[in-house]
Write a structure and sequence with these properties.
The protein is mainly beta. Helices cover 4% and strands 45% of the residues. The chain has one helix and six strands. A six-stranded mixed β-sheet has the order 1-2-3-4-5-6. A hairpin with a 2-residue loop joins strand 2 and strand 3.
Length: 98
């Protein structure tokens, strides 16, 4: 389990240069309608974040389906070994905790 926070830049900046790498990668985000799209690259070689390799490109799409349901669609591309997409619906994660 990872116990660190990821910062997702929403200011329109490009990804950091390829030689600048971190355990959780370089995340930039933008909105496509009501969907938050988070694009992450530049994982370090030592990273174990979501099975990352240094060449992994991760695109996550967060969408609220209704008041109690958040959908997360994940597309992972690693240069040689994986190119796949996963869809996950987590209604418990979207509920307010108050």
């Amino acid at each position: 389990m990872i116990h660190s926070a990821r910062i997702v830049a929403l200011n329109g900046r490009p990804h950091a240069p390829a030689h600048i790498r971190s355990l959780t990668g370089d995340s930039i985000g933008h909105w496509e309608g009501d969907t938050l799209v988070v694009d992450t690259t530049n994982f370090s070689q030592e990273a174990g974040f979501r099975g990352a390799s240094k060449d992994m490109h991760l695109v996550e799409r967060f969408s609220r389906v209704d008041a109690d349901t958040l959908t997360l669609r994940v597309h992972r591309r690693r240069s040689a070994d994986l190119d796949g997409e996963v869809e996950r619906v987590d209604p418990d994660d979207a509920r307010p905790t108050s």
